Amino acid sequence: MEMLERYQEILIHAAPDLLGQFSFELIDTYLTKEVKKRVTDFLPQNPDLPTNTDFLTNALLGTFRQVAMWWFQHRDTQTKAETRANMRRLLQQLFIN
To answer: What's the mean pLDDT in 71-88?
Structure first.
């Protein structure tokens, strides 16, 4: 979400049609590495989850991407902290229960 905030002004003026794609292309490689590392560490303790790390990594990245874009479009009604808290609660319910 921070990356979206930083690039907001540049992207809106330079290429408003690319706002949804460009910023995520810049951070996808980093996020993929970080999420895959966490998924790889997390999977052995959670055998009920899909074991394909690429599948689970991409499923989570898609979720994060959509939530970030939703927040970016609705940040006047929900703060970044509220969005993070909601995401944390959602993930805890999905993966802990």
So the answer is: 88
